Amino acid sequence: MPNILIKVPTGAFSDQQRARLLTRVSETAIAHERIGNDPRQRSLCWVLIEEVRAADWTCGGLGVHAHAIPCIVMVKVPAGVLDEQMRKDYVLGLHQAIEESAEPDDGRMLMTSIQLTDIPDGTWGANGSLWRLADFTRAAGYRHLLPGA
């Protein structure tokens, strides 16, 4: 049940590219967190793209937007869902999903900064209640955490 916020400079992606980005990042998150296939389980994966004015974004004090697409991705996931290998695979998968969303002949370099943040057990509220890992596992159907996995 990730909450994923993607920050990109305004205009870095067209409407069609943003739609691809939302789809590919969602699919990547669902696969890497091993969320169940039921549409109710998949609906717990929230992805949001936020555009920031390019003039308000620098890399090393410089505006790089003519040559690069900087992209910050913040993923919040319940603590205990991901192990070390899953984290490594997830970061690579997210980078690739973003890369595949850009036009192949764009010519700008993709620069991603991806942060996976574990939310401590019992500190994530959902629909007015505090949830624990067992609640998330039941709701999201984390295949690797279900009994008998």
UniProtKB/TrEMBL annotation:
SUPFAM superfamilies: Tautomerase/MIF (SSF55331). It catalyses: (2Z,4E)-2-hydroxyhexa-2,4-dienedioate = (3E)-2-oxohex-3-enedioate. GO terms for molecular function: isomerase activity. Residues 2-66 form the 4-oxalocrotonate tautomerase-like domain. Its EC number is 5.3.2.6. InterPro entries: 4-OT-like_dom, Tautomerase/MIF_sf. Keywords: Isomerase. Catalyzes the ketonization of 2-hydroxymuconate stereoselectively to yield 2-oxo-3-hexenedioate. Homohexamer. This is 2-hydroxymuconate tautomerase.
